[in-house]
Specification:
alpha+beta; Butyryl-Coa Dehydrogenase, subunit A, domain 1; Butyryl-CoA Dehydrogenase, subunit A, domain 2; 3 domains; four-stranded antiparallel sheet; three-stranded mixed sheet; 12 helices
């Protein structure tokens, strides 16, 4: 079966036409991303997931389409609205979370860090190349002992003459084995600092993490930093303290808010189509009340998540989006997508666990998405802190 359930898509859009709610610029970007995802990613994604294969040749095409760092102004970037960027994330993740993750790591993390905190020289050196897909970046924050406590990082940056020496380890770093530059965060006597480290630097080693049962068509890595010597010019001069990497993480979380709506939509479309074509007891399963109730509940979760994304996009475009609302979006929409995907699997029956349908692959990927850029628990505690004034993190 095609990853794209045409009859299901038409049925879902007939009830809730989300595309019509987008403004013209966002809809144009969305359609470009949909065309790209369906023509360049969808035909191979089941095979790539099975074979743990990342199609590096698509990076330049993503750059040519303008998707990389598209929300950044200047330096070869598109300068698109936050809503348009969200719509692109939705269409890429509707096919596979790994490809929205690529765009997110490249644009929302690595490029955003350089754009927000880098020197003019660093911006000129890296951003045009990364926007075009000629260079790849990664964002090295998470460490092996735990990603939810970056304040406890053990990677160090020590001044040495007119430069710095970095030592430590990072884990679950997207794209690190492909990257030309790593934005590395380290603890120093001057606080948490960020560095744009060329990955060819002596002492920098990245290894792809194997054995993954999720996100198999993308690349996540371990990094070892052993006496990595960089000049002062590699330091991001505007970055000092955890607020810098956290602001980049919020950019990535915003993309997730939208991206998982694409997963929910795909799973709902596939389930609707299957409900019309699969027959038991002499009738399509879509005629039975329990199946219709499941589909109705799935539609509600998809629609609520989509409308929340649109609302947060409008807030971000207006400059009023805050960290609490980003946590609301990430926590709610990932939770909704997981629920929709699991219900879709039940409607597909036993066939739902096969690669004939995309649902089980989406379920597996969502287990990663719910963990990275802040776990469910972390986002719940962010909201709890803001509601009560009490921090429960320690």
């Amino acid at each position: 079966m095609s990853t794209i359930a045409t009859a299901g898509r038409e049925a879902v859009a007939g009830v809730f036409d989300f595309d019509a709610l987008l403004h013209d610029e966002a809809r144009q970007w969305q359609q470009k991303a949909r065309d790209f995802a369906e023509s360049r990613i969808a035909p191979h994604i089941e095979e790539d997931f099975e074979n743990k294969h990342f199609r590096r040749e698509l990076i330049a095409e993503l750059g040519e389409a303008g998707f990389l760092g598209m929300h950044i102004e200047g330096y070869g970037c598109a300068g698109a609205s936050a809503t348009a960027y969200g719509a692109v994330c939705m269409e890429l993740e509707a096919i596979d979370s790994g490809w929205r993750t690529f765009v997110s790591v490249q644009g929302s993390l690595a490029m955003s860090a350089i754009a927000k905190y880098g020197s003019e020289e660093q911006k000129q050196q890296w951003l045009p190349e990364m926007a075009a897909g000629r260079a790849v970046g990664c964002f090295a924050l998470t460490e092996p002992a735990g990603g939810s406590d970056p304040a406890g990082m053990t990677t160090t940056a020590v001044r040495d003459g007119d430069g710095w020496v970095l030592n430590g380890a990072k884990r679950w770093i997207g794209l690190a084995t492909l990257a030309d530059v790593a934005v590395v965060w380290a603890k120093s006597d001057e606080g948490i600092l960020g560095f744009a480290v060329p990955t060819a630097t002596e002492g920098f080693e990245a290894r792809a993490i194997d054995g993954k049962l999720s996100m198999r068509a993308s690349v996540q890595c371990d990094i070892d930093l052993t006496n990595v010597r960089v000049p002062e010019s590699a330091r991001l001069p505007g970055a000092r303290g955890l607020s810098a990497p956290f602001s980049c993480l919020n950019e990535a979380r915003y993309g997730i808010v939208w991206g998982v709506v694409g997963v929910a939509r795909t799973c709902l479309e596939v389930a609707v189509e299957r409900s019309r074509t699969r027959e038991v007891f002499g009738a399509p399963i879509g005629r039975f009340q329990l199946t219709q109730a499941k589909l109705a509940d799935m539609l509600l979760e998809y629609e609520k998540a989509a409308l929340l994304s649109l609302h947060l996009g409008a807030q971000k475009d207006a400059g009023t989006l805050n960290r609490s609302q980003i946590s609301v979006g990430k926590l709610n929409n990932v939770r909704s997508a997981i629920g929709v995907a699991h219900e879709a699997r039940t409607i597909l029956g036993g066939d739902g666990i096969t690669s004939e349908f995309p649902v089980m692959r989406h379920i597996a990927n969502l287990e990663s998405v719910r963990t990275y850029e802040g776990t469910d628990e972390v986002h719940a505690l962010v909201l709890g802190r803001d509601l009560t004034g009490e921090a429960a993190f320690s």
